[in-house]
């Protein structure tokens, strides 16, 4: 199956906007075009899925409450084949909805009403490459961190921008990859939720620290042998998280 990959381009980044309110959709499209994005908009999830299959977007803005397939279902449908950053836009601020959207595969959650400048800042933060602070081999040609040397070594390969278990690529979203890079750069040291929030999402980001916990749980399902009893990405109660390569 073809994979819809998140990528950097010299041309304007392609932004998929899924919003069923005509007025909000039009206003957002014009604002995002002013910010330099090539915007493809859709009023329902089915049209948005068709747009994603036709040409992979670089980023997505998704409303949750839609007629027919809702935003949660859209994210779950698109996420297995796309690592493009997804920001949820919703008037619902209930903790359950926020966690559910992040668990479905969203990278961030913005509550309506919001300032376009804030949304633009979060989009820019998600487009940034993760920091480079990993081990460099003797030839100075690659940055790699071996996370697990067991059967099918788990390797964070920053030079290639991916994670491998043996010969198989481990599919991570952009946020999950950046989170793993931050933890890998500080391997063996505890990083607080606030520190991770500011480095992975954006400096000065004022969002809920629980977003870190949700992404850590998602990341564990992909890199731990037993996500329910993690030994690689561990919780240090009251302090934060620590990556302990084996």
Topology:
Layout: E1 14-18, H1 22-34, E2 38-42, H2 45-54, E3 59-63, H3 71-78, E4 86-90, H4 95-104, E5 108-111, H5 116-127, E6 144-148, E7 154-157, E8 162-165, E9 168-170, H6 174-185, E10 190-191, H7 193-201, H8 210-223, E11 233-236, E12 240-243
Parallel strand pairs: 1-2, 1-3, 3-4, 4-5
Antiparallel strand pairs: 6-7, 7-8, 8-9, 10-12, 11-12
Helix pairs in contact: 2-3, 4-8, 6-7, 6-8
Report the sheet-strand fraction.
15-25%
**Over the alpha carbons, how many angstroms does the gyration radius reach?**
18 Å
Q: In the CATH hierarchy, what is the class of the largest domain?
A: Alpha Beta
Low-confidence stretches: 1-10, 130-142
Q: What is the CATH H-level superfamily of the largest domain?
A: Response regulator
Structural class: alpha/beta
Remind me, CATH topology of the largest domain?
Rossmann fold
Annotated CATH architecture of the largest domain? 3-Layer(aba) Sandwich
Average predicted local confidence, pLDDT: 84
The major β-sheet equals:
5 strands, parallel
Counting copies of identical and different chains, the oligomeric state is single chain
Determine the fraction of residues in helical runs and give it as a percent range.
Answer: 25-40%
**H/E element sequence:** EHEHEHEHEHEEEEHEHHEE
| Tally of individual helices | 8
Between the first and last Cα atoms, what is the distance in angstroms? 33 Å
Number of strands: 12
